[in-house]
C-alpha cells in the first residue's frame, strides 16, 4: 500500500473479522481437534484460515490479520505508518473475539480447562518440545521474516495476480509445520496475545516474546526486501481500500 492511500472503516472491520477467523479456526483446531488431526492438521487449519480470509477480505483491507505483517509492510513502504495503530487495534480486537468465542465453545465440553491447553505459545516447560528461550526467539524471528518476505514477494506488481492468498496460506502452513513442536507457532502477536490473556499463567508471563519477536522478524524482512531492490508498488492484495 502506498503512503497516500486512505483507509476506510471497512478496512478495520475486515481486519477484525479476518483475525477473529484466524484465531477461531487455527487455535480452535488445536484446542478442539488437535488430538485427532495432529500437528499437520493444525498447520493446515492456520494456513486455510489466512487463505480464506485473504480471499474474502483482502480487497477491503489488504488482508494483514497480523500486527507483524502490518509493521513489516510499513517498514517496506507498502503501508502508511499513520495507519498502523488502527490496524493493530483492529487485529487485537479480532483476536480477542476469536479467542472468546473459542473459550465459549470449548467450555461446552465437560472437564474443559484452559490450563490443559488453549493454543498458547511458550518456551521451556511451556514449549511442546521443551525448547529453550533462544530456540523459540530465533524460530519466531526467522519464520516471521520468511512469512513477510513471501507476502512482499507475491504482492509485487510483477508477481502473477490472483494467487497471492494461496501462496500466503501455504507459507503459513509450512511455518506451522516447522514451529508447532518448538513453541506452538506464533508469527503473529495478536494471535498469541488473545489466548494468553484468557489462559493466564505461563502463557501470559511469556507472551511478551511473542509480541516482540514477530515484529522484529517483520522489520528485518522489510529491510532485506529493500536491500534486494524489490519494487515498492504492491499488487491488489497488499492495498488497503482506495480513497
Tell me about this structure.
With 243 residues, this protein is mainly α. It has one domain (9-110, 118-238): Up-down Bundle (Glycerol uptake facilitator protein). The chain contains seven helices and no strands. The longest helix is centred in the first third of the chain and has 53 residues, at 9-61. The two termini are 12 Å apart. Belongs to the MIP/aquaporin (TC 1.A.8) family. This is Aquaporin Z. It comes from Nocardioides fonticola. It holds the Pfam family MIP. Its main location: membrane.
Gist?
This protein has seven helices and no strands.
Main attributes of the structure:
mainly alpha; about 240 residues; single chain; globular; Glycerol uptake facilitator protein
CATH uppermost class: Mainly Alpha
Return the string of H and E elements. Answer: HHHHHHH
Q: Averaging pLDDT over every residue, what do you get?
A: 91
Query: Do you know the CATH architecture?
Result: Up-down Bundle
**What's the number of extended β-strand segments?**
0
Distance between the termini: 12 Å
Tell me the major beta sheet.
Answer: none
**What's the total helix number?**
7
What is the H level of CATH, i.e. the homologous superfamily?
Glycerol uptake facilitator protein
Q: Any chance you could write out the topology, listing elements then pairs?
A:
Elements: H1 9-61, H2 67-75, H3 84-106, H4 133-154, H5 164-183, H6 189-199, H7 201-227
Protein name: Aquaporin Z
Transmembrane segments: 12-33, 39-57, 87-109, 129-151, 163-183, 203-224
Pfam family, one: MIP
Amino acid at each position: 500500500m502506498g503512503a497516500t492511500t486512505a483507509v476506510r472503516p471497512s478496512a478495520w472491520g475486515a481486519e477484525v473479522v479476518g483475525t477473529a477467523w484466524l484465531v477461531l479456526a487455527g487455535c480452535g483446531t488445536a484446542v478442539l481437534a488437535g488430538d485427532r488431526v495432529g500437528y499437520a492438521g493444525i498447520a493446515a487449519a492456520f494456513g486455510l484460515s489466512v487463505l480464506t480470509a485473504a480471499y474474502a477480505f483482502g480487497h477491503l483491507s489488504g488482508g494483514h490479520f497480523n500486527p507483524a505483517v502490518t509493521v513489516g509492510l510499513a517498514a517496506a513502504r507498502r503501508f502508511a505508518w499513520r495507519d498502523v495503530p488502527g490496524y493493530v487495534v483492529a487485529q487485537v480486537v479480532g483476536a480477542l473475539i476469536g479467542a472468546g468465542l473459542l473459550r465459549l465453545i470449548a467450555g461446552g465440553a465437560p472437564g474443559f480447562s484452559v490450563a490443559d491447553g488453549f493454543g498458547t505459545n511458550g518456551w521451556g516447560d511451556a514449549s511442546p518440545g521443551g525448547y529453550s528461550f533462544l530456540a523459540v526467539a530465533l524460530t519466531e524471528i526467522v519464520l516471521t521474516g520468511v512469512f513477510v518476505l513471501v507476502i512482499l514477494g507475491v504482492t509485487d506488481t510483477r508477481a502473477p495476480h490472483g494467487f497471492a492468498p494461496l501462496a500466503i496460506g501455504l507459507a503459513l502452513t509450512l511455518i506451522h509445520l516447522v514451529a508447532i513442536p518448538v513453541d506452538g507457532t506464533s508469527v503473529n502477536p495478536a494471535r498469541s496475545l488473545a489466548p494468553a490473556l484468557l489462559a493466564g499463567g505461563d502463557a501470559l508471563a511469556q507472551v511478551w516474546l511473542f509480541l516482540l519477536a514477530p515484529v522484529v522478524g517483520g522489520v528485518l524482512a522489510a529491510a532485506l526486501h529493500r536491500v534486494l531492490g524489490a519494487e515498492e508498488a504492491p499488487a491488489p492484495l497488499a492495498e488497503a481500500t482506495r480513497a
